[in-house]
Amino acid sequence: MATIYASARSPQNERAEPVQSGLSARRLAAFSTLAIPFTAAQLPILNFLPAIYAQQFGISLGALGTIFLLERLWGVFADPLVGTLSDRTRSRLGRRRPWIAAGVIVFALAAAALFFPPAGVSPLYLGLALFTFYLGCAMIQIPYLAWSGEISGQYHERTRVATFATVASSSALLLVILLPALIDHLHLGDDRLKLGAMGGFVLLALLPAAWLTLRAFPEAPAREASRAKPLGPLATIRVIAREKLLLRVILSDLAVTFGQGVRNTLLLFVVSIYMGLPEWGATLMLSQYIFGIAAGPIWMQVASRIGKHRAAITGELVQVAINLGLLALTPGNLGLLIALTAAQGLAQGSGNLMLRAMVSDIADQHRLKTGQDRTALFFSAFSISMKAGMALAVGVALPLVGAAGFDPAAAHNSPTALTALLVTFAVGPALAHLCSAALLRGFTLDEAAHAQIRRELDRRAAGAHA
């Protein structure tokens, strides 16, 4: 039987004891709280910070674009490095806790610099703060994702862990997007207040959330995890390239994130310009997050019946149908738009949730084959696919609709340009989700196969300790 480490004793005295019951919902909720400030910081930095720094501090769009592009390249280096070092860390506190605790400090300092900037801000200041911020993100996210897959070795329990984190993330997005909406009603146009309010929420939530997460579960004793051999950059690429199932999950997640990114990039343009309903833009965006909170538990139940990869395929095919339904939108047709937005919210987390839970299963299979535990390294590759999907979506969607003649600043757009906007908004994500489903077809690591892997790993561990 797979072992679940459910002791909640202090890190100094912990000796994890195996139990056969499911993980405590209270402890899972505590463990997931770190996702709230972490996720809450991502949306304003991507959606609000560039415009505010351009308008308030005079940083050119070219400089902003260069800084954010270099940050993506920095993540390609930083994420695998943190993953490899976390896998090799041995300390009294475990492999994951020291990195998360140090990352929280780096993250907090950089977030304070970004959300509460001084009067005179240069591109160098923004670049250093942003690079430090994403270093802190990597130090938190990669070990946290790896740890979330190690709390339980059971197939469906890992889906539960991912579901709790998904609900926490959706709640954080809902809370943080409410702040600028409220400020617009009270102090219209006060961008510095918006930035400070969102930053204050992140910083106030960070320390309590980190405390709850770090104490929610102990880590498995170090003796039960093999020490991964050090790898250079080329060797790291070769290890990941040999894991065919991991590559399929990474590419599937890239497609999911790309589809979501295209939709989010063009949503406000479609609502305000194509539909002619600018007053509904923020409300519809909020509704997606509200329904997204309910999506996690729904898809967790689906996965418990048909398995993770089949649930992911089902969710992606549902997304295809919903996005193709957007082609039926006509200007002013608010009822259909609300219905499809609600359906989108209920379906949107299916792929992300299942794919994340599947990475830990693949890491178990790799450990059985090679004797090397590279869970955090595999999650770092997964993290890169998420970032690449978002960057690719913006880089493809905006130039594509621009080439078709769409201009968001124009008083009037031609029918051809508006049709191109709608088609890109609907068909682009539909094709991406279809690709995601196709990549998972015939996925061999199901519940039965994973149970066999865990039995063999447990047998080896028992033999090593005999």
TrEMBL record:
<keyword id="KW-1133">Transmembrane helix</keyword>
<feature type="transmembrane region" description="Helical">
    <location>
        <begin position="124"/>
        <end position="147"/>
    </location>
</feature>
<feature type="transmembrane region" description="Helical">
    <location>
        <begin position="99"/>
        <end position="118"/>
    </location>
</feature>
<feature type="transmembrane region" description="Helical">
    <location>
        <begin position="280"/>
        <end position="299"/>
    </location>
</feature>
<dbReference type="InterPro" id="IPR036259">
    <property type="entry name" value="MFS_trans_sf"/>
</dbReference>
<feature type="transmembrane region" description="Helical">
    <location>
        <begin position="28"/>
        <end position="53"/>
    </location>
</feature>
<comment type="similarity">
    <text>Belongs to the sodium:galactoside symporter (TC 2.A.2) family.</text>
</comment>
<feature type="transmembrane region" description="Helical">
    <location>
        <begin position="376"/>
        <end position="398"/>
    </location>
</feature>
<dbReference type="InterPro" id="IPR039672">
    <property type="entry name" value="MFS_2"/>
</dbReference>
<feature type="transmembrane region" description="Helical">
    <location>
        <begin position="418"/>
        <end position="440"/>
    </location>
</feature>
<keyword id="KW-0812">Transmembrane</keyword>
<feature type="transmembrane region" description="Helical">
    <location>
        <begin position="159"/>
        <end position="183"/>
    </location>
</feature>
<dbReference type="Pfam" id="PF13347">
    <property type="entry name" value="MFS_2"/>
</dbReference>
<protein>
    <submittedName>
        <fullName>MFS transporter</fullName>
    </submittedName>
</protein>
<keyword id="KW-0472">Membrane</keyword>
<feature type="transmembrane region" description="Helical">
    <location>
        <begin position="59"/>
        <end position="78"/>
    </location>
</feature>
<feature type="transmembrane region" description="Helical">
    <location>
        <begin position="311"/>
        <end position="329"/>
    </location>
</feature>
<feature type="transmembrane region" description="Helical">
    <location>
        <begin position="195"/>
        <end position="214"/>
    </location>
</feature>
